[in-house]
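I would like you to sit down with the record closing this message with an eye to the fold:
=====
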Amino acid sequence: MNVRSLDVEVALRAALAAVVPLAILLSIGRPEWTPYAAFGGMTAIFGRGEAYRGRLRTVTVATVGLVASVALGIAAAVAARGSGGGAVGVGSAASAEASAATAITALMLVVVLVGGVLAVNVARLAPPTPLFFVFAVLVCAAVPTPTAEVGVRLGIAIGSAAFAWALSLSGRLLRRVGSARFKPLRPPAPVRWSAVRDPAVWTVIALHVVGALLAGGIALASGLGHPYWAVVSVCAVIPPAGAAHSLSRAWHRVLGTAVGVGVTALILWPDPAAWVLVIVVAVAQFGAEVLIGRHYGAALVFVTPLALVVAHLAQPVAVGGLLVDRLVETALGCAVGILAVLAGRAIDARRGARAGR
């Protein structure tokens, strides 16, 4: 199978994994549960082009990571609600409650960053980034969650992830029946337990943790409405352990997001029906997966409407504020990400000099 047909195969799986659970939620009148279905469905983007014996491991680890991230996000949301986060308070009491909620979310973020980077490097996941785990924990932490709904919201994530898991492995029988028509898939990379002791992996963990907390803190202090987008942008810019510390990804993300915000404005300002937005999610997911391996900036033109439409379905807000938040926080996160890349270069250079001596 050539690269183009493989991209289409992956994109179709990802689009189905995204749109089917969303359509079910809309049919029962619960669009506010959209994030849990969306993050479970992200299981389908893992294991791209991998032979099925390796893909089974990859998508299983991804499923566990995504569901665990959603669970931690829900726990943070419930804990914040219990501590008074989001409630109306007065003076120092309200400030203390907000600080407690922020501290809980920050703790969950650090847990997901450390666990996510280690899982990516030990299990050799593709894509090799904790970004999706981080996105899941922060969005779910930001959605107000009644204690009585914890089980059903987590169940939606589990069900959506299971559906995406099955989709990811569904082509195995087809390839067995018509094996002569398909080129071999990429052989699986072996599990790398030594990554737990690799200084380069822990350097990446440190860059993610410091960069994410810095970007999130600045976004919160600035009063921006969706500070998790700044954090996610940092994670998108920092390269995997062992990869070159390039700045091009940051520029691609800013420019792609700017164009994607314009596309989203054309979609959301006419205030279309919810079923139209579900179709937009399917098209955007398909386009993103087709382009992500070819040009990151072009893929962001689809990723941005995908993220914003899902956010709007879950928690409808003024469209103008939503778009401005996305653009400003992406620029903020990329700026912090660039600092992290430069720090990574300096650390690599120092490590190389020590090795030379």
About this structure: The mean pLDDT is 87. The chain has 13 helices and no strands. Residues 198-357 form one domain.
